[in-house]
Amino acid sequence: MAVLNKIRQRSLVLILVIAMALFAFVIGDVFKNSDSFGTSQDIIATINGEDIKREPFMFAVQNRQQRSGPNATETQIKNQVYNEELRRIVMSSEFEKLGLSVEKDKMRELLETSFGAYPEFQNQDSIFDVNKLNAFIANLKDIQPQGAPLSTFTINYAQWTNNEQSLANGALTQQYYNLVKAGVNATVAEAEDEYLADAKTVDVRYVQVPYTSIADSLVEVSKSEIKAYMEKNRDLYEVDETREILFVEFREDASKEDEDALKAELLGLKADKFEFNSATKATDTVLGFDNTNNIEAFVNSNSDIKFSDEYLRPSQLGVAKDSLANTEIGGYYGPYKDGTFYKYSKVLDRASKADSVKVRHILIPYAGANRVAPDVTRTPEEAKATADSIFNVLKGNRSKFKDLLELSSDKVSNEKEGVIEFTYNQGFAPEFKAFSFDKKKGDMDVVETSFGYHIIEVLDQSGFSNTIKLATVAREIEASEKTIDDVFNGKQKFEIAAESGDFRELAEERGLTAKPVTFKELDENIPGLGSQRQIVRWAYNQDTKVGDYKSFTVSGVGYVVAQLVDVNEEGLMSVENATTPVLAAVRKEKKAEMIRNKISATTLADIANNQGQTVKTATGLTMKNTTLSGAGVEPKVIGTAFGLQQGVVSKPVDGEKGVYVVEVTKITEATKLDNYAAILARLSNARKNTVQTQVYSALEKAADVEDNRAKTVY
Q1: What angle do the packed helices 11-32 and 2-9 form, to 10 degrees?
Q2: pLDDT (tens digit, 9 = 90+) per residue, 104-143?
Q3: pTM of structure
Q4: Contacting residues for 218 by C-beta, under 8 A, at least 6 apart
Q5: Ramachandran bin of 240, using left for φ above 0, alpha for ψ from -120 to 50, beta for the remaining angles
Q6: How far apart are CA 255 and CA 486, in angstroms?
Q7: Which of 80, 239, 335, 528 could cross-link with 266 by S-S, CB 3.0 to 4.6 Å?
C-alpha cells in the first residue's frame, strides 16, 4: 500500500514527464522535417521572391495530363508546367522593372486577333463586334463557376481570364524581345573584321614537334597537379549534384522450357481431341485445326491475336515470309517465333491482289461516328437506310454518282468527284481497304466503317502482287509461374549475398551485368528501364548511404536490385572522377613545357634538324579557317601567324597536337571595300536571331531560384 500511495503522489509528475517526452519527440520530428510547420511542403519553388504553390501547380499538372493523354509521363508534365511558371515569373520580373504592361485597347486587339473569326463575336455582316465580346465575358462572370459554349467547346470565367493573361504575357514577351533586339547591332569595325577574316591571307612555313614524340610514361602527373588544373579551368569541371548506382536486372523472361511447352501446345491444336464430358458422361470430340468447320471461331478461341480475313502481301508476313510462300494451300508452317509471339499458321488461300486502287465513294455519317460534324444527328439505322437508298439509285444508273455527292460528308474527296487513289500500305479504315482491294474492278456496295456508311465503287486496280490468306494461332511468349518463382528466388539470394559480398563480383558470378548509371535529383529515366522515379528518390533519400542496396519491381523487366555507389556533390568534380579526362590535358601541358625547353635554335631549319622534324608549308590561311595544312585544326597557331610580320619567326606555340614554331613567308592584304553595309546587316540579323534564346538563358541563370520539386511533388 505504501508503494501505491507513493505512485499516486507522484502521478502528476509522471504525467508531466511523459507529456514532455512526447512533446520532445514531436518537436524533434518537426525540426527534422522542417516542412511540418509551414510552408515548404506547400511551396514547389520560390523564384525571384514569388512562390509556386502546390495546389495550383498540381491542378495545372492534372489539366495538362488530361490534354496530353498517355503521350507524356507525369514527371514530364510536371517539368513542362514548372518551366512555364519559371519563364512566366522570370519574364514578369523584367516587365515590372521596365514598366511594360498591356492596356485595355491592346488587350481588345489581342482578343480580336484570337477570337475575331468566332461567329459568337460577329455581327450579321460577319464582322467582329466588341459589344458581343464584352457581353459574353460579362455573362461568364455572372454564371461562374459554370461555363458557356463557345464554338465546339465550353469555357468558364476562370479559363477565360487565364487565357487573357496568357495573351497578355505573350504580347509583353514579344514587346520585351523587340526592345532587346533594337539594341543589338554590329558595328562597322566588326563588319570590316568579318570581311578581313575571309579576305586577308598568309602563307607560312612551320615546324611541328608533336606531343607524341615524348612517351606518356616519361611524364608523371600528381593528384595535386590535376586539382590545380581543374581549379584553373573551373568552368570545364563544375558539376551538378548527382548519384551513381549499379543495378542488376532479374528479368521475368520465358525460359527455354517455357518456349518448348508453348510450341507443344500449338502443335497439339492440329488434331482433334477427345474429352470426357462429366455432365453427359460421354466422350466429346473437340475439333482441331485440321477439321474445324469455323476457322475464325477456332483461331479467336485459341489465339492471342484475332483472326484476320485479309490477303497478306509478302511484306506483311514477317520473319516467315519465305517459308509461308512455299507452303501449299491447306498446309501448316510453324510453330515459329515472330517478335514476342509463337505462331502456328495454316495457309487458307492464295490470290493475286492489287497494290494500288482507285475508288470513289459517298459517305453517310451518323451521330457518334469518327470525325463527325456536331450537327449530324441521324442514327446508325437512319444512315444505313440513306446509304442503301443511294446505292439502289446508283445500281440503276452510275452516271448519277456526281449528282449524289452533295449528300456525302467527305468534303475532301468531294472536290475530286468522290475519287480516292491509295496504296495498300496507306492507312485507311480496315473495312474500306478490304473492299477496295479484295473486290474486283467495277464492284460497288455499301460498307460500314467507324466513319459511317460508304457507298464504294472500285474504279481501277493496279500493281498486282501474290498474296496469301492465313489462319494463324498466336500465343504470347510468357514466363511460367515456375520461371517467375525462380527469378524471385534468384533475386532474394542475390540480396542476401550482397549483405557481405561485392556487388559487382556477385553479379559476374551469376552471369548478370552490373550496369552503372548516374543521374540528377529531378531525373526520371534510367537507360534500359525507362521512367523509374522510385529508384531516383531512393538514391537521394537522406537515409540512403553509399553501399546501401534495394530491390525494386520494374514493369516489363521483373526486378532490379540497385546499389548506391557514389554521391557527387555540386561544385568542382572530385579528383578521382576527373583523373581520366584531366590527365591527358595536364600531361599535354607538361609535354609542351618539355618541348619548349628543348628548342634553342632560332631558324626553322635548325629547329627541325635538332628535333628530328621537317619544315612544312601552308598557303592561303585565313582567320576564319582554323585548319593548318599538314597538321589539323590549330586555331592558336593560325592566330599567331596573323600576328606576325612577314619574315618573322614566332616563339614556340602550344597547339592542339604539338608545339609549333611559325614563320610568315607572305601576307596578302585584302582590298578594302567602299561599303560594308551588306556584311553589317548580315551580322546584325544573325545576332538578332539568336538573342532571344540567349537573353532568356541569361535571365534564368541570374534568377534567384529555390527549387523544392524533388521534396514536394517528385
Answers
A1: 50
A2: 888 888 988 888 888 889 888 888 998 999 999 999 999 9
A3: 0.66
A4: none
A5: beta
A6: 10
A7: 335
